[in-house]
Amino acid sequence: MNFLFLVVLFGGVCYASSDVSIEPLVDHVVVLKVPHRGRTEEEVPLVCGTDDLTQDVFWKKDGMELNPPLKGNRITVLVEEMEGGNYSCHLSPGGQYLNHTIIFIQLDSEERVILKERSPEEGHIHCSAPNYTGPFRCSWTRANSRPNAAVLLLQATRNGQQIPCELDAGGSGVLCQDNSCSYKEEQHHILFTIHVHSYSRLETYTKAFYLKDIVRPGALSNLQMDNAKVFSWSYPDSWEKPCSFYGLNFQYRVVRHNHPCDSDTAILVNTTDDTKFEVNVKAKKYVFCVRAQDKYTQGPFGPWSSCVVTKEEAGCQPLSPGQRK
Predict the structure, then answer these.
(1) Is residue 162 within a helix (H) or strand (E), and if so which, with residue range?
(2) Cβ pair 155, 165 in contact under 8 A
(3) What is the distance of C-alpha 156 from the center of its chain?
(4) b/e map of 72-100 (b: 16 or more CB within 10 Å)?
(5) Residues paired with residue 43 on neighbouring β-strands, in sequence order
(6) How far apart, in whole angstroms, are the C-alpha atoms of residue 324 and residue 104?
């Protein structure tokens, strides 16, 4: 049996009061948008099927029968506070399922409680790309008080065109593939939107960016040191060729032994576009750190690649996670 649902609902009601609106989001999902205030009570009309539905219709909320019972093809439910839910209609109290509507509540407020804010500058969503070939990843972190929050809907677009994305299994990140030409100047930004819900509360997060703003080169390849204390490295394996077109700058730091690469007490700090550097310091034990940045956009730096130098062994060694900051 085919049922008209969201079209009937949205066409029949555009608002519940002067400052509350009811809007469809996706099939079988409507959002009750209310101001950020204390107590709210709003009536939401629901439709089970088409007007020619002749069978008796019984309703449940979250799989439970309602008391008093709700019957009829068209009904109105009272939504109080943040108490939305999944309303399903059936041919009898325990009979065949016909249709359902999930009601979410979204507060018209800048307050966000479902996802953690990474920083005031970055917001709640972090996006990065290893190069300009098109793939980019966005990630987010649930608030400690909302560990079971789930993604309801997400999309990425550029100039109105959909960018295909695939949600990670854990629901905390997404991989998207932008098919724009990597040799072409970006004319339009990417708009990323995610709708996340915790129980009946729904929040929407958006982020707009150009690919050039989020490209973060990967770890450098073939970092090594010769006997003359000359360090050399190669462009990241994930970086595009030719290097003359996609040039990189490199920041290098020499820090004291057992200190992290971002130590405030660095012995030496500088930048270069060369892929080698000779260290000339008095210290017998130190850490050499180097990372890459897009030469032309001067976007975010990639991760540190590092070598540990000691008096006993003058060679590159992997750093512990705490030292790679």
Answers:
(1) strand 161-163
(2) yes
(3) 10
(4) ebebebebeebebbebbbbeeeeeeebbb
(5) 78
(6) 43
pLDDT 10s digit of each residue in the chain, 325 long? 333 333 333 333 333 445 788 899 999 999 999 887 667 788 999 999 887 777 789 999 999 988 888 999 999 999 988 889 999 999 888 788 999 999 999 998 778 899 999 998 899 999 999 998 889 999 999 999 999 999 999 999 999 999 999 999 999 999 999 987 666 778 899 999 999 999 999 999 999 999 999 999 999 989 988 876 899 999 999 998 777 788 999 999 999 988 999 998 889 999 999 999 999 888 888 999 999 999 989 999 999 999 888 876 655 654 444 444 4
User: Rounded to the nearest 10 degrees, how much is the dihedral formed by the CA atoms of 54, 59, 62, 68?
Assistant: 180
**Contact (CB, 8 A) for 37 and 19:** no
Pull the structure tokens for residue 301. Answer: 């730096």
Residues 303 and 218 sit within 8 Å (Cβ to Cβ): yes
- The single residue listed with the structure tokens 């019972």 is 69
Instruction: Tell me the C-alpha distance between 29 and 103, whole Å.
Output: 6
Identify the structural domains of the chain with CATH numbers, from first to last.
Answer: 21-108 (2.60.40.10), 115-213 (2.60.40.10), 224-318 (2.60.40.10)
Identify each DSSP E strand in 257-319 by its residue range: 268-272, 276-278, 286-294, 305-309
- Outline where the chain has alpha helix (H): 6-12, 211-214
Please give the Cα distance from 131 to 136 (Å, whole number): 8
- The answer to whether residues 47 and 8 touch, using CB atoms and an 8 Å cutoff, is yes
Q: String of b and e for 231-269 (b: at least 16 CB within 10 Å)?
A: bbbebbeebbeeeeebebbbbbbbbeeebbbebeebbee
From CA 2, how far away is CA 74, in angstroms rounded? 16
Token pair belonging to 210: 């150009």
Residue type at 153 in one-letter notation: L
